[in-house]
Design goal:
InterPro entries: FAH, Fumarylacetoacetase-like_C, Fumarylacetoacetase_C_sf. This protein is α+β, with helices and mostly antiparallel strands and about 375 residues long. The protein contains twelve helices and 18 strands. The strands form three sheets. Strands 1, 2, 3, 4, 5, 6, 7, 10, 11, 13 and 16 form an eleven-stranded mixed β-sheet that branches. The protein has a five-stranded mixed β-sheet with strand order 8-18-17-14-15, with no helix packed on it. Strand 10 and strand 11 form a beta hairpin. Helix 3 packs antiparallel against helix 4 and helix 3 runs antiparallel to helix 6.
Length: about 375
Amino acid sequence: MTDTLSMLPADWKDGLFLGRIDLGEGPTPVLLSGGTVYDMSRVAPTVADLVDAAAFDPAQGKALGAAKDVLAGATLLSPIDLQCVKAAGVTFAVSALERVIEERARGDAAKAQAVRGGLEERIGGSIRSVGPGTAEAAALKAALIEDGMWSQYLEVAIGPDAEVFTKAPVLSTVGTGATIGVRSDSDWNNPEPEIVILSDARGKAVGATLGNDVNLRDFEGRSALLLGKAKDNNASCAIGPFVRLFDAGYTMADVENAEVLLRIEGRDGFLLVGESRMSEISRPPLDLLHQCFSEHQYPDGVVLFLGTLFAPTQDREAPGRGFTHRIGDVVAISSDRLGTLVNTVATSGEAPPWETGITALYRNLAARGLLKTAAHAVA
């Protein structure tokens, strides 16, 4: 799937979408409305500025033309820029169990299957039956400790505090069609298909998109203190294709009831498909967002990965070893109201290097004369 329009949801002409494209001059925030692309850079030079000003009226921008024509000649970038990239982990019972499996297998994929069967039988039903932070969860925690079954992952799965971490540096995310990277020294890894919500600086959710929180199961399984190496590598965070802004036709309720589909096709003929149902999330998305802002400020806003139900266990290399990526895998993450995020896997060392940081972005905006005019427009 290479055509940009084919990556949009079927009802894309009925919604309002926020994104970034490059037509050859540099990153440009755009709105997609009613089949037309609008350049919003003279209103606000960055997506963060556009969200801060709530400048979501396409009429304030410059119509570039029909989406089929404009997007055909543009590079589609990650739809966010200056926002802090946060991720919530262990927000589904299945993913909680898989993290415990990684921990008990010490990051060794060959041991995972033996651990998985016994663990699911002993605590799988219990984890699914309690709400995080409740008295029932506290009682389950006490029982698991007594039984020698407690884990740091179960703490964030059923305890009062969610796992929320910084996934990637500002401006390092890649968009649909781009290469995604896994460390060359990882031999147990997978995509994490997720819905991502965009908020303004005050913690108000303004829209949603799709994300791939690429994960190295061997690194995190060896030690949770290796989370940075497991999560934050070149090209290891993909977001897109566009942020669908909330309106009367698309609300947080649609996020909470969405299905996220995953399809992985390998050069070796391997095929894996799966789905993640947001209705099974253990914590409401707005609660996770609140936990980001409860003791912190984010003046440029936040994008928050909500976690995934899907942890691939289908064997690929050998029986009992489960899934891991191979170079050239094509990963497609889709949801009917958000579209499709497609990326091809390489090592982080071989993926295109990240070279456009904050300094480079503002030099580009200044050279294009966007900073002064946009500041005046927003004010």
